Amino acid sequence: RVSIINLFSFLGEINTCIQASELAVSLDALPLNEIPAAPELTEEDARDLDALCLAKSHFELKEYDRAAYFLRGCRSQKAYFLYMYSRYLSGEKKKDDETVDSLGPLEKGQVRNEALRELRVELSKKHSAGELDGFALYLYGVVLRKLDLLKEAVEIFVAATHALPLHWGSWLELCNLITNIEMLKSLSLPECWVRDFFMAHMFTELQMIKEALQKYQSLMEAGFAKSTYIISQIAVAYHNIRDIDQALYLFNELREQDPFRIENMDTFSNLLYVRSMKPELSYLAHNLVEIDKYRVETCCVIGNYYSLRSQHEKAALYFQRALKLNPRCLGAWTLMGHEYMEMKNTSAAIQAYRHAIEVNKRDYRAWYGLGQTYEILKMPFYSLYYYRKAHHLRPNDSRMLVALGECYEKLSQQVEAKKCYWRAYSVGDVERMALLKLAKLHEQLNESDDAAQCYIIYIQDIFSCGEQLEHAEVSTALRYLGQYYFKNKLYDEASLCAQRCCDYNDAREEGKALLRQISAVREQGEPSSTDLSLACVFNPLINTTTPVRRASPLDLSSVTP
């Protein structure tokens, strides 16, 4: 454990070093006699050691050109990796320096690292000769990915995981290139305990949350129960399925175990934002500023705080600051798109969402945001395309299905719209809007029986959740059902609906008018209908036998962080 962590640290792979160290701390300490000896230096390593130490000092000071200069004649594999890695990072630094002052973050992706093509040629020759170790293969894969040679990059990253299974950076890069479960299953990955962490991470990315939680549970039972990394990933998984309470609980537990942790705190702030927990979000923002105000996560948390206070210009400013620190920060691109949407700047929002998709094509929030933006621009065909993409990534998310249904409705494809609304209800309607929209669609198409059934289930669903939703249109449903029952001569049911209409200001007069109509009909001695086909339309306020899908009510219509 110690030797591999030291190796990662020495070669500048700090993120992998932190990951390995966190996992090592969660395990029981080894007795002294079981700690393996450090690997012996090869003759080439010994010859290059002084130059390597000098170059490493310049590397840590971000003097990448100087580091590469002192390593140019070295032959060991460690020196070669650090030499090539320094040249790569030098190109990245120069690219950022060219853009940071002259261009905003939206144009940042237009500038290229000029060193990439040269690095690719050199690494390709070494690879053909079989002279690249696990670290150099990782760098070769990064270069290919930066050049958009994605198929070749996947092959190289798979080779890197075989050559050095404990290098988490290779696994993460591979994760970003896998688009679906079929592609994941087709890869020949090494049999190693790190593979279990990778599979759990991959399941989370592919929205296969049940499988991800099972994998993380088995890892905790295998000895990693104290791992803060696993706790954070489980919290992220619950965040992805909108189990807000469980996710908040785990993030609070994580903060107790690691109070100075900044990783994943942007996700924690998303949850606080959704719950409108202003004091908690304010405390988190101030706390992170005290720890490190120049971290990407800190900027995102502050941005969420200002967004919750409806100060959208300030929020966008902090998301831009996050992107200056890391142009590949997925969350910042998406959240900045949301802020531009709030400011009615649709062109900037579209650019932000497109950049988010460039970073990660699996980000359903960006696809969904593009759909919303084009919907505002009254371009339903474009909206339909992007909503379909979002639905493909989140097939069981009712919000995507409702959005699809609305698009189909605007395009006069009522049959498809009805399918989407019913599917949204079947998978668990988060916003409890699907049945209402379906009922109104049936009403427009003069399908009165179907509309009545939908309104009935809608009313039961609203009352079963135990609280009134802001958008709840119970009075609309009661008005329609009252008239429906009256037309079908079910006067008792019509009377009950009319009485309940009187509880709502916007339906009170219509309820009273309907009660007068029912009284007049009864005075004339007209009997109620006994039609069995209508009797099956159960009483919406008494019958509780109809199964209803329950979900925590969340208002996420304006933002999906």
UniProtKB/TrEMBL annotation:
<keyword id="KW-0131">Cell cycle</keyword>
<keyword id="KW-0833">Ubl conjugation pathway</keyword>
<dbReference type="InterPro" id="IPR011990">
    <property type="entry name" value="TPR-like_helical_dom_sf"/>
</dbReference>
<dbReference type="InterPro" id="IPR019734">
    <property type="entry name" value="TPR_rpt"/>
</dbReference>
<comment type="pathway">
    <text>Protein modification; protein ubiquitination.</text>
</comment>
<dbReference type="GO" id="GO:0005680">
    <property type="term" value="C:anaphase-promoting complex"/>
</dbReference>
<dbReference type="GO" id="GO:0016567">
    <property type="term" value="P:protein ubiquitination"/>
</dbReference>
<dbReference type="Pfam" id="PF04049">
    <property type="entry name" value="ANAPC8"/>
</dbReference>
<comment type="similarity">
    <text>Belongs to the APC8/CDC23 family.</text>
</comment>
<dbReference type="InterPro" id="IPR007192">
    <property type="entry name" value="APC8"/>
</dbReference>
<dbReference type="GO" id="GO:0031145">
    <property type="term" value="P:anaphase-promoting complex-dependent catabolic process"/>
</dbReference>
<protein>
    <recommendedName>
        <fullName>Cyclosome subunit 8</fullName>
    </recommendedName>
</protein>
<keyword id="KW-0802">TPR repeat</keyword>
<dbReference type="Pfam" id="PF13181">
    <property type="entry name" value="TPR_8"/>
</dbReference>
<feature type="repeat" description="TPR">
    <location>
        <begin position="330"/>
        <end position="363"/>
    </location>
</feature>
<dbReference type="GO" id="GO:0045842">
    <property type="term" value="P:positive regulation of mitotic metaphase/anaphase transition"/>
</dbReference>
<keyword id="KW-0677">Repeat</keyword>
<dbReference type="GO" id="GO:0051301">
    <property type="term" value="P:cell division"/>
</dbReference>
<feature type="repeat" description="TPR">
    <location>
        <begin position="296"/>
        <end position="329"/>
    </location>
</feature>
<feature type="domain" description="Cdc23">
    <location>
        <begin position="42"/>
        <end position="235"/>
    </location>
</feature>
<keyword id="KW-0132">Cell division</keyword>
<keyword id="KW-0498">Mitosis</keyword>
<dbReference type="Pfam" id="PF13414">
    <property type="entry name" value="TPR_11"/>
</dbReference>
